[in-house]
Every structure is written in C-alpha cells, then in structure tokens.
Amino acid sequence: MSKTIFIVEDDLFLQGLEATKLKKEGFSVITAGSGKDVSDIIAKKPTIDLILLDLMLPDMDGFEILKMIRKESSFLNTPVIVFSNLSEDKDIEKAKSVGITEFMIKSNFNLDELTDKVRELIGK
Amino acid sequence: MDKDTEIKSLQDKIEKLTKLQSIRSDIVSVSAHQIRTSLSALKWVIKMFMDGDLGKLNAEQENLLKKAYEDNDRAISVVTELLQANKAEDVIEKPYAFTEVNIIELIENSIFDFSGEALARKVEIIFLKPETRLPTVNIDKDKFRVVLQNLLENAIKYSNPNSKVFIALREKNNFIEISVKDRGIGISEEGKKSIFQKFYRDTTAQKKESLGSGIGLFTTKKIVEDHSGKIWFESTENEGSTFFVTIPSFKENT
C-alpha cells in the first residue's frame, strides 16, 4: 500500500503542484488549506505517514495546527516536514522546540528534492 | 530652545525613527515572504517542464527554460539576501543585553538554522564538540547568533558541493575559541587585506556567488569586538578558509 502524505498548504497553486508531484512518485495525498480543514480531516482519523506543513495559514499558524494534530495519539510520532518560506530564527527555533523532523525553505528546494527527503524519512 | 526642550525633542525623534524602522522591517519581511512564495511556484513549474513531466521539449525550449530556472534562482537569492540584511539590521540596532549563555547549545541552534541551506548545497556541517566541559560565556545571545550564522553561511556558500564544514570549540587561556573551517574557494591575496571592510566582496566570492551585500563579515567583526573578542582567519585560495573567533569565558567570582 502506498504511503500517505498530509499536505497542509493554503496556497492552492503550490498545494496542487506538491500533490501532483507526490502522487506521480507513488504516494497517496490528503490536502488541507486551513486549520479548520485540518481539524475536519484528523477527526476522521485517517492513516498518515508524514505531514508536510506550511507555517502561514489564514486561520491558524502552522505551530498551532501541529499542536492540534499531535493531540491525536495516532499522530504523536508522525514525521513532520515544515515546508515554508519563513526563515526567521524565531520560526526555526519554535519548529525545533515542537519536535519537527525537518525544516525546508520552499524556495531553496525543487519538488524532486522534497520527494527525496520524504522517501528518506518514510521510505517509498 | 532650552536644553530640556531640546532633549525632549530628540527623544521624540528617536522614538519616531524606531517606530518607522520597525514598520519598514516588517514590510520588507512580509513582502519578501510573498515574493519567495511566487518564486517557489515558478521554480517548481519550470523544473516540471525541464524534467519533461509535461511533454518532451526540443533543444531550444530546454535551453530557454534552463536560463529561466537559473534567473529565477538568482531572484530567490536576492530576496534571501534582503531578508538576511533586514534581520541582521534588526538585531544590530538593539542595545546589547549580555547574559550567561551555553555556547554549545547556541552553536547547535545555529547549525540547525542552516541545516536546510546545507542540505540544498550538499554540504555537511560537522560540530566537533570539546571533550571537557566548557564554562558558560557572557554574551548577547541574539547578536552572537548573527556571528555564528554569518560564519556558517559563508562556509556553506563558498564550499564546494559534497564537502564538509567543521565547526570546533575549545577553551584556551580564559578564552573560548570557535573555529569554522571549510574546504571551499578560499580568499584571494587581495581579499585578505579587505575582507572585513564594509561592502567589500572578494573576487573569488563574486565568481562563485554573484550576489552578496558585503556586510556579513564587517558586522561579524564589530559584534565580536563588542564582546571584547577577536576574529581572524587562515585561508588558501582554492583550498578553503578557517575563521577563528575568541571571546572571554565567563568565570563566576568566588
């Protein structure tokens, strides 16, 4: 069975590109564009192997979203890649303190490199 | 105008300027974030075309897209440079606030700041921690972080891909010495004389990275010296550079 990536990204164009790429590489994808979407989705307790998390969303910031996700015991240890264009020290420090697995700045990577990182963390 | 009125008027001006500076900095930060997002989308789409995900390209199309990709990457570097200059300015503007700091932890955090950049440039950062326990240091944490960031950033930026950057730490005669070593392009003989000057960029650096403000090492030196420390380097062109920083170690009065 293919692994599932939960993409949390409010920019629908970027979200679409990320989803297309990951699907093409054989992953299943669930998407959310806001904190509310995330809350609705996790209530259904889907199987998620990795979370790709943007930090700036319209109704909540990424850290609040992560806190919400982690409250659900089945997502307590799910790897999280923060995929954002924020790169302030305070954001990186905060990300580290809440136990994210990787911090990647979107503009520094192309989607092949993102896919490689996903594979490195959870396999194919 | 009497003296008191003059002082009051100057204080008002300082307050106004500080406010303006903070607004300006926020505008830069938010705009840069938005521009980066658009540039990321462009980067990914161009790459999809280049990889043939949307159909096979002819040689001319491929060539043009490659140029567009490189140009886009240059624009991303400009924005990154702008964000860094903005951030450094914010930190430097603030008055010094010295506290007792665990330097190992601060270095580890700075390395984490650059883990993405290092990964993107295929450079490995290795932290050679001392075997013995080090005393804490009395520093301005935010400002000193800029020092570590600038040194690490340069080491990564001017390294060759698939090489390593070593950061080491030791105590020597009541000083803590930090060294950052790369196997990169090194500094030219001419550059060695001027590398700490404001806006100066070495020719070797310009060849490798056309963009750069030339304020990183200038700022770094100023912050180190404000900590009663010293900064110097050893470098050979085409072989690499090592930057050394020493700051007094913190000893409690007993």
Write the layout of secondary structure elements.
The complex is a heterodimer of chains A (124) and B (254).
Chain A: E1 4-8, H1 12-24, E2 28-32, H2 35-43, E3 50-53, H3 62-71, E4 80-84, H4 89-97, E5 102-105, H5 111-122
Parallel strand pairs in A: 1-2, 1-3, 3-4, 4-5
Chain B: H1 3-50, H2 59-93, E1 99-101, H3 103-113, H4 115-120, E2 124-128, E3 137-139, H5 141-157, E4 164-172, E5 175-182, H6 189-194, H7 203-208, H8 216-226, E6 230-236, E7 240-248
Question: Can you offer a commentary on this structure?
Answer:
Chain A has 124 residues and is α/β, with parallel strands linked by helices. Chain A has a single domain, classed as Response regulator (Rossmann fold, 3-Layer(aba) Sandwich). Helices cover 43% and strands 19% of the residues of chain A. Chain A has five helices and five strands, in the order βαβαβαβαβα. A five-stranded parallel sheet of chain A has the order 2-1-3-4-5, sandwiched between helices. The model of chain A has no long low-confidence stretch (mean pLDDT 90). With 254 residues, chain B is α+β, with helices and mostly antiparallel strands. Chain B has two domains: 91 residues, Helix Hairpins, CATH 1.10.287; 150 residues, Histidine kinase-like ATPase, C-terminal domain (Heat Shock Protein 90). Chain B has eight helices and seven strands, in the order ααβααββαββαααββ. In chain B, the strands form two sheets. A five-stranded mixed sheet of chain B has the order 2-4-5-7-6. Chain B has a two-stranded antiparallel ribbon with strand order 1-3. In chain B, a hairpin with a 2-residue loop joins strand 4 and strand 5. In chain B, helix 1 packs antiparallel against helix 2, helix 3 crosses helix 5 and helix 5 packs antiparallel against helix 8. The longest helix of chain B has 48 residues. Chains A and B meet through helix 1, helix 4, strand 5 and helix 5 of A and helix 1, helix 2, helix 3 and helix 4 of B.
